[in-house]
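Q&A log
Question type: sequence-to-structure
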Amino acid sequence: MSNLSASSTDPDTLTPIAADLTALNTFGLASTAQAYVRIVSPRQLPALSALAKRHGRVFVLGGGSNVVLPSTMDGLVAHMAIPGIRLLEAREDAWVVEAGGGENWHGFVDHCLRQGWDGLENLALIPGTVGAAPVQNIGAYGVELDQRFLGLSAWDIERGEMIEMSARDCHFAYRDSRFKHDEPGRWLIVAVRFALPRPWRPVLDYPDLQRHPALASLPPAGSIDTRTALSARAVFDAVCAIRREKLPDPAVIGNAGSFFKNPIVTADRHASLRQRYPGLVAYPQKDGRYKLAAGWLIDQCGWKGRSMGAAGVHDRQALVLVNRGGARAADILALAGAIRADVKARYGVDLEPEPVRP
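Response status: OK
Response body:
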């Protein structure tokens, strides 16, 4: 295989190369691309559109944290690596910050806090890139990306033009956006803009944060005393500690984080399930529905710590599927299918995978 940097030596051109993608996906699944390009500058985007016409199929790869890659990737793999973080505007009500789509998400959050641009601390340690964050509409510990989102610039690979999108244009929903429904390989998110609220107020509604030793003794969330006694960095540190305790490090054991979405059911469906299963873990939503804890459902079906060949369920977090060594995409998908079947049979609930299958 060629050196991965070889495809981007000229900022205006792109030369596809064969590439090993095993180290470019957090599951650590063995995968090779017949045609790979690394996008490091917006100047390369016209060349990308030209290549797309020749190859027919494009898969946009970010941090590789939300994908189940097959052994062989057909078509063109476009690896987003455009960097850059800058403050666009210091408004009275918000810091307006822009980041390149290739920036590491956690690194971006950390950088913002170092600059005093608070508001993303609840989203710390989520793997992946800034450009992938709107695709999944990432969220954690009481904060969703669309609550901090201002707009983005996306390259329309098919038409060869840059498009500006607002939150409305992105059609955000729970772990969802238009980018998961439009034609595969059409969009490359080049830059994302955020409005980080001023004055800063901590979001501490999530039970794990309320129980964390560094935060548990604080006054009620949202009060003036809490804002005075707490820093965004303290929330960031608490979120990182909680995630490290619950979730395995992909550098140690291959995984893609939470594999399934938490299913959302009607109030009537929730009441029916609660009557049959009093220990059911669920969270009320603003629209009256309930979000069920997928990890609890999987755990109750006896899957925590179990394996099917080289694919397994993490022994501390049932929501995380892991590569125990040498797993292929088919192994992960077979395990996921068995889990979904068991949860459906027992609870009548459909689990939806989060990772993308190219």
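Response note: The chain has three domains: 4-80, 85-244, 254-347.
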